[in-house]
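Dear colleague,

Thank you for sharing your sequence with our group. We've completed the structure prediction you requested, and as agreed, I am returning the results in plain text so they can be pasted directly into your records. Please verify that the sequence below matches your submission; if there's any discrepancy, let me know and we will rerun it promptly.
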Amino acid sequence: MKTLLPLLALAGLCGAAGLKVGGPAPPIALNQVLQAPAGTNATWQGLKGTAVVLEFWATWCGGCRDQIPHLNRLAEQYQGKPVRFISVTDEEPGIVQRFLKDYSMSGWIGIDSAGQTFRNYEINGRPQTALVDAAGILRGMGNPADLTGEIMENFLAGKPIVFSNDAPTTFTKLQTLPDPLFQTMVRPAAPVDAVGYSSGAVSGKAGQRWETWGVPLRRLLSDAYGIPEQRIEAPSWANHDAYDVAVAAPGLTPERQIELLQRALQDTFQVKAHKESRDTAGYVLERRPGVDPKLRPTASGTASHWGKFGDITAVSVPVLALASVAERALGKPVFDETALQGRFDYELKWDVANPQAFLEAIREQLGLNLVEARRPLDYLVVDSAVQPRPW
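Please find the predicted C-alpha coordinates below.
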Protein backbone atom coordinates (compact mmCIF):
# COMPACT_ATOMS: atom_id res chain seq x y z
CA MET A 1 0.00 0.00 0.00
CA LYS A 2 1.31 3.40 -0.89
CA THR A 3 1.86 5.79 2.00
CA LEU A 4 1.10 9.28 0.78
CA LEU A 5 2.81 12.55 1.50
CA PRO A 6 1.47 15.38 3.71
CA LEU A 7 -1.24 17.56 2.18
CA LEU A 8 0.10 19.85 -0.51
CA ALA A 9 -1.03 23.45 -0.27
CA LEU A 10 1.09 25.06 -2.97
CA ALA A 11 -0.29 25.37 -6.48
CA GLY A 12 1.19 22.91 -8.90
CA LEU A 13 2.50 20.38 -6.36
CA CYS A 14 0.10 17.59 -7.24
CA GLY A 15 2.52 16.58 -9.95
CA ALA A 16 0.05 15.23 -12.50
CA ALA A 17 -0.79 17.34 -15.53
CA GLY A 18 -4.28 18.83 -15.24
CA LEU A 19 -4.49 18.29 -11.47
CA LYS A 20 -3.49 21.51 -9.76
CA VAL A 21 -3.92 22.65 -6.18
CA GLY A 22 -5.44 26.11 -6.40
CA GLY A 23 -7.29 25.29 -9.62
CA PRO A 24 -10.79 23.95 -10.31
CA ALA A 25 -11.39 20.52 -8.83
CA PRO A 26 -11.75 17.74 -11.43
CA PRO A 27 -15.26 16.32 -11.84
CA ILE A 28 -16.56 13.54 -9.62
CA ALA A 29 -18.42 10.79 -11.47
CA LEU A 30 -20.36 8.50 -9.13
CA ASN A 31 -22.91 5.97 -10.33
CA GLN A 32 -24.31 5.47 -6.82
CA VAL A 33 -24.12 7.21 -3.44
CA LEU A 34 -24.78 5.22 -0.27
CA GLN A 35 -25.93 6.76 3.03
CA ALA A 36 -27.23 9.82 1.17
CA PRO A 37 -30.79 11.16 0.70
CA ALA A 38 -32.72 9.85 -2.29
CA GLY A 39 -32.08 11.89 -5.40
CA THR A 40 -28.71 13.19 -4.18
CA ASN A 41 -26.82 15.04 -6.92
CA ALA A 42 -23.18 14.30 -6.07
CA THR A 43 -21.62 16.63 -8.65
CA TRP A 44 -19.87 19.95 -8.10
CA GLN A 45 -23.00 21.68 -9.39
CA GLY A 46 -25.15 19.81 -6.89
CA LEU A 47 -22.65 20.44 -4.08
CA LYS A 48 -22.14 24.12 -4.91
CA GLY A 49 -21.68 26.19 -1.76
CA THR A 50 -20.53 23.19 0.28
CA ALA A 51 -16.92 22.30 1.00
CA VAL A 52 -16.06 18.64 0.47
CA VAL A 53 -13.59 16.25 2.08
CA LEU A 54 -13.18 13.67 -0.68
CA GLU A 55 -11.64 10.43 0.58
CA PHE A 56 -10.32 7.76 -1.82
CA TRP A 57 -10.36 4.33 -0.19
CA ALA A 58 -11.21 0.62 -0.56
CA THR A 59 -12.49 -2.16 1.68
CA TRP A 60 -9.32 -4.20 1.06
CA CYS A 61 -6.99 -1.33 2.00
CA GLY A 62 -5.71 -1.79 5.56
CA GLY A 63 -4.44 1.79 5.77
CA CYS A 64 -7.87 3.03 4.69
CA ARG A 65 -9.59 1.01 7.40
CA ASP A 66 -7.16 2.41 9.97
CA GLN A 67 -8.26 5.96 9.10
CA ILE A 68 -12.02 5.33 9.39
CA PRO A 69 -12.25 6.25 13.12
CA HIS A 70 -10.27 9.46 12.53
CA LEU A 71 -12.48 10.53 9.63
CA ASN A 72 -15.61 9.58 11.56
CA ARG A 73 -14.53 11.86 14.41
CA LEU A 74 -13.94 14.74 12.01
CA ALA A 75 -17.31 14.18 10.32
CA GLU A 76 -19.05 14.23 13.70
CA GLN A 77 -17.06 17.27 14.85
CA TYR A 78 -18.10 19.27 11.78
CA GLN A 79 -21.66 18.02 11.56
CA GLY A 80 -23.93 20.98 10.84
CA LYS A 81 -21.10 22.94 9.22
CA PRO A 82 -21.04 23.63 5.44
CA VAL A 83 -18.82 20.64 4.68
CA ARG A 84 -19.62 17.19 3.29
CA PHE A 85 -17.50 14.06 3.81
CA ILE A 86 -17.62 11.73 0.79
CA SER A 87 -15.65 8.48 0.74
CA VAL A 88 -15.15 7.19 -2.82
CA THR A 89 -14.35 3.60 -3.78
CA ASP A 90 -14.27 1.85 -7.14
CA GLU A 91 -15.66 -1.40 -5.75
CA GLU A 92 -19.05 -3.00 -6.28
CA PRO A 93 -21.93 -1.71 -4.13
CA GLY A 94 -22.59 -5.19 -2.71
CA ILE A 95 -19.06 -5.48 -1.31
CA VAL A 96 -19.27 -2.01 0.23
CA GLN A 97 -22.67 -2.69 1.79
CA ARG A 98 -21.34 -5.87 3.39
CA PHE A 99 -18.31 -3.97 4.67
CA LEU A 100 -20.51 -1.29 6.24
CA LYS A 101 -22.14 -3.95 8.42
CA ASP A 102 -18.76 -4.44 10.11
CA TYR A 103 -17.36 -0.90 9.86
CA SER A 104 -19.45 2.20 10.51
CA MET A 105 -18.51 5.10 8.24
CA SER A 106 -19.87 8.63 8.64
CA GLY A 107 -20.80 10.67 5.59
CA TRP A 108 -21.70 9.60 2.08
CA ILE A 109 -20.13 6.61 0.35
CA GLY A 110 -19.57 7.19 -3.36
CA ILE A 111 -19.44 4.25 -5.77
CA ASP A 112 -17.17 4.95 -8.73
CA SER A 113 -17.44 1.57 -10.43
CA ALA A 114 -15.79 2.77 -13.64
CA GLY A 115 -12.91 4.37 -11.73
CA GLN A 116 -13.39 7.68 -13.55
CA THR A 117 -13.10 9.82 -10.41
CA PHE A 118 -9.92 7.98 -9.42
CA ARG A 119 -8.48 8.76 -12.86
CA ASN A 120 -9.60 12.38 -12.68
CA TYR A 121 -7.67 12.82 -9.43
CA GLU A 122 -4.68 10.71 -10.56
CA ILE A 123 -5.08 8.36 -7.57
CA ASN A 124 -2.37 5.69 -7.54
CA GLY A 125 -2.31 4.85 -3.83
CA ARG A 126 -4.84 4.74 -1.02
CA PRO A 127 -5.88 6.27 1.29
CA GLN A 128 -5.76 9.77 -0.14
CA THR A 129 -7.82 12.83 0.68
CA ALA A 130 -8.72 15.78 -1.54
CA LEU A 131 -10.04 19.02 -0.06
CA VAL A 132 -12.38 21.00 -2.33
CA ASP A 133 -13.74 24.31 -1.08
CA ALA A 134 -17.25 25.70 -1.48
CA ALA A 135 -16.24 27.42 -4.73
CA GLY A 136 -15.10 24.13 -6.27
CA ILE A 137 -11.37 24.85 -5.92
CA LEU A 138 -8.97 22.02 -5.07
CA ARG A 139 -7.20 23.25 -1.93
CA GLY A 140 -5.05 20.24 -1.00
CA MET A 141 -4.37 16.53 -1.37
CA GLY A 142 -2.68 14.08 0.96
CA ASN A 143 -2.95 11.44 3.63
CA PRO A 144 -6.09 11.58 5.82
CA ALA A 145 -3.88 11.03 8.88
CA ASP A 146 -2.54 14.57 8.30
CA LEU A 147 -6.02 16.10 8.25
CA THR A 148 -6.15 17.84 11.64
CA GLY A 149 -8.80 20.04 13.19
CA GLU A 150 -6.59 23.09 12.60
CA ILE A 151 -6.30 22.27 8.90
CA MET A 152 -10.07 21.80 8.71
CA GLU A 153 -10.70 25.17 10.38
CA ASN A 154 -8.37 26.98 7.98
CA PHE A 155 -9.83 25.09 5.03
CA LEU A 156 -13.41 26.05 5.89
CA ALA A 157 -12.43 29.65 6.67
CA GLY A 158 -10.79 30.04 3.27
CA LYS A 159 -7.39 30.65 4.88
CA PRO A 160 -4.11 29.28 3.52
CA ILE A 161 -3.56 25.71 4.61
CA VAL A 162 -0.35 25.56 6.65
CA PHE A 163 1.37 22.24 7.35
CA SER A 164 4.23 21.26 9.64
CA ASN A 165 6.28 19.77 6.80
CA ASP A 166 7.02 21.21 3.38
CA ALA A 167 6.40 19.02 0.35
CA PRO A 168 9.57 16.96 -0.33
CA THR A 169 11.40 18.44 -3.30
CA THR A 170 12.67 15.07 -4.54
CA PHE A 171 9.17 13.62 -4.76
CA THR A 172 7.83 16.69 -6.55
CA LYS A 173 10.60 16.64 -9.15
CA LEU A 174 10.28 12.93 -9.79
CA GLN A 175 6.57 13.28 -10.49
CA THR A 176 7.23 15.74 -13.33
CA LEU A 177 9.80 13.59 -15.14
CA PRO A 178 8.81 11.17 -17.93
CA ASP A 179 9.05 7.46 -17.13
CA PRO A 180 12.11 5.64 -18.54
CA LEU A 181 11.46 3.45 -21.57
CA PHE A 182 14.00 0.90 -20.32
CA GLN A 183 15.45 0.62 -16.83
CA THR A 184 16.79 -1.77 -14.22
CA MET A 185 17.51 -0.04 -10.94
CA VAL A 186 18.53 -1.28 -7.47
CA ARG A 187 19.40 1.22 -4.75
CA PRO A 188 19.40 1.43 -0.94
CA ALA A 189 15.84 2.24 0.14
CA ALA A 190 15.09 5.95 0.13
CA PRO A 191 13.14 7.53 3.02
CA VAL A 192 9.37 7.22 2.76
CA ASP A 193 8.93 10.99 2.80
CA ALA A 194 11.22 11.28 -0.22
CA VAL A 195 9.54 8.69 -2.45
CA GLY A 196 5.99 8.59 -1.10
CA TYR A 197 5.87 4.79 -0.71
CA SER A 198 5.92 2.73 2.48
CA SER A 199 8.12 -0.33 2.88
CA GLY A 200 6.82 -3.29 0.89
CA ALA A 201 4.72 -1.20 -1.48
CA VAL A 202 4.51 -2.24 -5.14
CA SER A 203 3.75 0.21 -7.93
CA GLY A 204 4.16 0.65 -11.67
CA LYS A 205 2.19 0.49 -14.90
CA ALA A 206 1.00 -2.77 -16.42
CA GLY A 207 3.03 -3.66 -19.50
CA GLN A 208 5.55 -0.87 -18.85
CA ARG A 209 7.23 -0.87 -15.45
CA TRP A 210 7.31 -2.63 -12.07
CA GLU A 211 8.61 -1.10 -8.84
CA THR A 212 8.91 -2.24 -5.26
CA TRP A 213 9.98 -0.11 -2.33
CA GLY A 214 11.94 -0.68 0.88
CA VAL A 215 12.21 -4.48 0.69
CA PRO A 216 15.05 -6.87 1.66
CA LEU A 217 16.88 -9.20 -0.70
CA ARG A 218 14.88 -12.22 0.52
CA ARG A 219 11.65 -10.60 -0.69
CA LEU A 220 13.28 -9.73 -4.02
CA LEU A 221 14.47 -13.32 -4.46
CA SER A 222 10.91 -14.50 -3.81
CA ASP A 223 9.60 -12.15 -6.51
CA ALA A 224 12.34 -13.15 -8.95
CA TYR A 225 12.20 -16.93 -8.54
CA GLY A 226 8.60 -17.55 -7.48
CA ILE A 227 9.52 -19.22 -4.17
CA PRO A 228 7.87 -18.11 -0.87
CA GLU A 229 10.25 -16.27 1.46
CA GLN A 230 10.02 -18.97 4.14
CA ARG A 231 11.48 -21.48 1.66
CA ILE A 232 14.53 -19.40 0.76
CA GLU A 233 17.92 -20.05 2.38
CA ALA A 234 19.98 -16.86 2.24
CA PRO A 235 22.51 -14.91 4.34
CA SER A 236 21.11 -13.17 7.42
CA TRP A 237 21.70 -9.71 5.96
CA ALA A 238 19.26 -10.60 3.18
CA ASN A 239 16.48 -10.25 5.78
CA HIS A 240 17.35 -6.72 6.89
CA ASP A 241 18.99 -4.39 4.36
CA ALA A 242 16.21 -2.70 2.37
CA TYR A 243 16.21 -1.67 -1.29
CA ASP A 244 14.11 0.11 -3.89
CA VAL A 245 13.96 -1.77 -7.20
CA ALA A 246 12.51 -0.88 -10.60
CA VAL A 247 12.43 -2.66 -13.94
CA ALA A 248 10.94 -1.14 -17.07
CA ALA A 249 10.79 -2.15 -20.71
CA PRO A 250 8.44 -1.63 -23.66
CA GLY A 251 5.77 -4.34 -23.64
CA LEU A 252 6.87 -5.60 -20.22
CA THR A 253 5.40 -9.09 -19.76
CA PRO A 254 5.49 -11.03 -16.46
CA GLU A 255 8.12 -13.32 -17.98
CA ARG A 256 10.28 -10.39 -19.10
CA GLN A 257 9.85 -8.76 -15.69
CA ILE A 258 11.17 -11.90 -13.96
CA GLU A 259 14.08 -12.12 -16.40
CA LEU A 260 15.10 -8.49 -15.80
CA LEU A 261 14.70 -8.80 -12.03
CA GLN A 262 16.82 -11.95 -11.87
CA ARG A 263 19.52 -10.28 -13.94
CA ALA A 264 19.44 -7.17 -11.74
CA LEU A 265 19.90 -9.27 -8.59
CA GLN A 266 22.71 -11.25 -10.16
CA ASP A 267 24.52 -8.09 -11.27
CA THR A 268 23.96 -6.17 -8.03
CA PHE A 269 24.40 -8.86 -5.39
CA GLN A 270 26.36 -11.42 -7.44
CA VAL A 271 23.66 -13.93 -6.51
CA LYS A 272 24.29 -17.56 -7.32
CA ALA A 273 21.38 -19.81 -6.36
CA HIS A 274 19.73 -23.09 -7.22
CA LYS A 275 16.35 -24.70 -6.65
CA GLU A 276 15.97 -28.08 -5.01
CA SER A 277 12.97 -30.23 -4.13
CA ARG A 278 12.55 -31.34 -0.52
CA ASP A 279 10.04 -33.59 1.17
CA THR A 280 8.28 -31.13 3.49
CA ALA A 281 5.90 -31.51 6.42
CA GLY A 282 2.74 -29.46 6.18
CA TYR A 283 -1.03 -29.71 5.87
CA VAL A 284 -3.39 -30.74 3.09
CA LEU A 285 -6.58 -28.71 2.71
CA GLU A 286 -9.25 -31.15 1.55
CA ARG A 287 -13.00 -31.66 1.39
CA ARG A 288 -14.74 -33.53 4.19
CA PRO A 289 -16.25 -36.82 2.96
CA GLY A 290 -20.01 -36.48 2.52
CA VAL A 291 -20.05 -32.81 3.56
CA ASP A 292 -20.68 -29.89 1.21
CA PRO A 293 -18.16 -27.07 1.69
CA LYS A 294 -19.59 -23.96 3.31
CA LEU A 295 -17.67 -21.64 1.01
CA ARG A 296 -20.24 -19.58 -0.90
CA PRO A 297 -19.80 -19.10 -4.67
CA THR A 298 -19.34 -15.36 -5.07
CA ALA A 299 -21.71 -13.00 -6.82
CA SER A 300 -18.99 -10.33 -6.98
CA GLY A 301 -16.62 -9.68 -9.83
CA THR A 302 -13.95 -8.06 -7.65
CA ALA A 303 -12.01 -9.47 -4.72
CA SER A 304 -11.73 -7.94 -1.26
CA HIS A 305 -11.00 -8.87 2.33
CA TRP A 306 -11.11 -7.16 5.69
CA GLY A 307 -10.92 -7.76 9.41
CA LYS A 308 -8.05 -8.56 11.75
CA PHE A 309 -6.20 -11.87 11.70
CA GLY A 310 -8.50 -14.23 13.58
CA ASP A 311 -11.68 -12.57 12.30
CA ILE A 312 -11.60 -12.47 8.50
CA THR A 313 -14.20 -11.65 5.86
CA ALA A 314 -13.20 -12.54 2.30
CA VAL A 315 -15.10 -11.80 -0.91
CA SER A 316 -14.48 -13.32 -4.34
CA VAL A 317 -11.25 -15.17 -3.51
CA PRO A 318 -9.95 -18.56 -4.75
CA VAL A 319 -9.36 -21.46 -2.38
CA LEU A 320 -5.64 -20.88 -2.85
CA ALA A 321 -6.05 -17.61 -0.92
CA LEU A 322 -7.61 -19.55 1.96
CA ALA A 323 -4.62 -21.91 1.87
CA SER A 324 -2.35 -18.88 2.26
CA VAL A 325 -4.30 -17.79 5.34
CA ALA A 326 -3.90 -21.32 6.71
CA GLU A 327 -0.12 -21.22 6.11
CA ARG A 328 0.15 -18.05 8.14
CA ALA A 329 -2.04 -19.41 10.95
CA LEU A 330 -0.26 -22.77 11.20
CA GLY A 331 3.28 -21.74 10.32
CA LYS A 332 3.63 -24.61 7.85
CA PRO A 333 2.99 -25.11 4.12
CA VAL A 334 -0.61 -25.84 3.16
CA PHE A 335 -1.45 -27.73 -0.03
CA ASP A 336 -4.85 -27.13 -1.64
CA GLU A 337 -6.25 -30.50 -2.71
CA THR A 338 -9.94 -29.55 -2.58
CA ALA A 339 -10.29 -29.37 -6.39
CA LEU A 340 -12.71 -26.47 -5.79
CA GLN A 341 -12.68 -24.11 -8.77
CA GLY A 342 -13.83 -20.52 -9.00
CA ARG A 343 -14.09 -17.78 -6.39
CA PHE A 344 -15.85 -17.80 -3.05
CA ASP A 345 -17.01 -15.67 -0.11
CA TYR A 346 -16.44 -16.72 3.47
CA GLU A 347 -16.10 -15.55 7.07
CA LEU A 348 -13.67 -17.24 9.46
CA LYS A 349 -13.09 -16.66 13.18
CA TRP A 350 -10.61 -18.40 15.49
CA ASP A 351 -8.30 -17.90 18.46
CA VAL A 352 -4.98 -16.86 16.90
CA ALA A 353 -3.08 -18.10 19.96
CA ASN A 354 -4.33 -21.67 19.43
CA PRO A 355 -3.41 -23.48 16.16
CA GLN A 356 -5.88 -26.23 17.04
CA ALA A 357 -8.65 -23.63 17.06
CA PHE A 358 -7.83 -22.82 13.43
CA LEU A 359 -8.15 -26.47 12.43
CA GLU A 360 -11.53 -26.62 14.15
CA ALA A 361 -12.68 -23.36 12.54
CA ILE A 362 -11.84 -24.67 9.07
CA ARG A 363 -13.78 -27.83 9.82
CA GLU A 364 -16.86 -26.37 11.50
CA GLN A 365 -17.20 -23.00 9.76
CA LEU A 366 -16.11 -23.91 6.22
CA GLY A 367 -16.77 -27.65 6.05
CA LEU A 368 -13.18 -28.51 5.08
CA ASN A 369 -10.37 -30.51 6.67
CA LEU A 370 -6.72 -29.72 7.30
CA VAL A 371 -4.72 -32.94 7.59
CA GLU A 372 -1.02 -33.26 8.35
CA ALA A 373 0.91 -34.59 5.36
CA ARG A 374 4.24 -34.47 3.56
CA ARG A 375 4.68 -33.22 0.01
CA PRO A 376 7.66 -32.30 -2.20
CA LEU A 377 8.27 -28.55 -2.34
CA ASP A 378 10.77 -26.37 -4.18
CA TYR A 379 13.30 -24.43 -2.10
CA LEU A 380 15.69 -21.74 -3.26
CA VAL A 381 19.22 -22.07 -1.87
CA VAL A 382 21.50 -19.06 -2.23
CA ASP A 383 24.97 -20.48 -2.73
CA SER A 384 26.65 -17.08 -2.56
CA ALA A 385 25.77 -13.39 -2.53
CA VAL A 386 27.72 -10.22 -1.88
CA GLN A 387 26.36 -7.48 0.36
CA PRO A 388 26.90 -4.27 -1.64
CA ARG A 389 28.16 -1.13 0.03
CA PRO A 390 27.26 2.39 -1.17
CA TRP A 391 30.18 4.42 -2.45
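Summary note from our side: The radius of gyration is 24 Å.

Kind regards,
the structure core
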